[in-house]
Amino acid sequence: MSSLLQVKVIPVNGVPCLTSCKKEERVQNDIILFENLLNFRGENANCNDFSQKLASGAAIFVNDSFSLSHKIRASTVGITRFCYASLAGFHFEEELMQLLKINDTTRRPYIAIVITGPYFIFSS
């Protein structure tokens, strides 16, 4: 991913200040990529302190998970309070466009099969 974006992408297992990823090691243009945060109590509770740790040193927050964006969690809602800007990522936009395309179709009846998790499957 680093070569594609032409910036350093730092994968992190955990939360800043609690991991080996030290703030002084990061450069202004680095991207921090978090693993699954659902195992952290502060994530599910949308904890203000947890959100602030996630956002530490970040200016821009990019949400690339459309399927989780409706959930009020530290990594989807809380973090936005501590970042200068919040944006939708490419995958988020792609999934939203797919929903809009389905909405515009004139074929009836609609059948939607919603699977809990990161994917939605639609059929008509």
Automatic annotation (TrEMBL):
Q: What class of enzyme is it?
A: transferase
- Cofactor(s) this protein cannot do without: Mg(2+)
An example of a GO molecular function for this protein is: ATP binding
Q: Which reaction does it catalyse?
A: (2R)-3-phosphoglycerate + ATP = (2R)-3-phospho-glyceroyl phosphate + ADP
Q: What is its EC number?
A: 2.7.2.3
UniProt cross-references to InterPro entries, sorted A to Z = Phosphoglycerate_kinase, Phosphoglycerate_kinase_N, Phosphoglycerate_kinase_sf
Q: What GO terms in the biological process aspect are recorded for it? A: gluconeogenesis; glycolytic process
One Pfam short name: PGK
Key words of the record: ATP-binding, Kinase, Magnesium, Nucleotide-binding, Transferase
State if Nucleotide-binding is listed as a keyword. Answer: yes
Superkingdom: Eukaryota
GO terms under cellular component? cytosol
Q: Which family does it belong to?
A: Belongs to the phosphoglycerate kinase family.
Matches recorded under PANTHER family: PHOSPHOGLYCERATE KINASE
Q: How does it assemble?
A: Monomer.
> What's the protein called, per UniProt?
Phosphoglycerate kinase
Q: Which organism is it from?
A: Aegilops tauschii subsp. strangulata (Goatgrass)
